[in-house]
Amino acid sequence: MVDGIEMLKLAILAPRGAPVSISSMVLRPFTTGVWIVLLVLCLLSCLGHNVIPSLFQNNLFFLALFGFDKRNLRFTGRCEKQFAISMIILLFQLKCAYETILISYVIERPTEPDPRTIRDLKERNIPLLINDLGFDMEKFDFPLDGVHLEFGIPSELNRSAIVSFRYELELLAIDVANIDLTNGKPRFGFLEQTFPESFEEQCSRRDCNKSGERR
Length: 215
Prior knowledge:
17% strand; disordered C terminus; elongated; 215 residues
């Protein structure tokens, strides 16, 4: 006799984003657009200093960034002074913002974004471990095209993502092995993508015992 129906929810427990490299930390404080603007300003300053030395006697970019001046600003023209003051204010604000962000990265190293969907696992070449003990993947319409699949029993957390019933993965997620000792944060997390569900019929112990006695 069936006295209850339990909905089995599937989930994927995947490694969280890896720490970024040192080179990425250096470039990460500014977006690509900001770096392009700085490069353009540097090129224009060098071009103006070499092509029109009578108008720009100093390289305004290096003057504002490093304090290198070929000639004291007091003896330069009014136009160069105005451009120099604007460049100094702009680069000073950018330097303050850059140093603040970089110091925060040194205190707590940033990580790559956590994977959210199966597509993220595919793009990052993260293998997917399928629990083949009491778990029938044929019952579920699972979009696993292009994902490297592994089969086994998820007994510990390693480099692979794990697909299984959510209640099983929650036990792994709260295990002490899931804590990164360097920062105290979980090493693995659940994907935000939703997955198909199945139903499992469960009989009460009393009814199961009765059926066993009748046999």
